[in-house]
Amino acid sequence: MANSIINRVKQLRTERGWTQEELAQAVGVSRQSINSIERDRYVPSLELALTFARVFEQPTDAIFQLETNA
What we know:
By secondary structure, the chain is of the alpha+beta class. It has five helices and two strands; from the N terminus they run βαααααβ.
């Protein structure tokens, strides 16, 4: 059984009208990192996930969810 992380970063960013660059500056990473996270190519560290939670004012499990693949 493999697990994958599903995230709502792009949805939350676009709801706020932010560019990838604006979000990157808010959380302290590059725009390329935001792009990779939104495309499910990179899973952020716990520290970065908590930073997203603070910036979006959402609990981490509202942004990132663990999905179990059968």
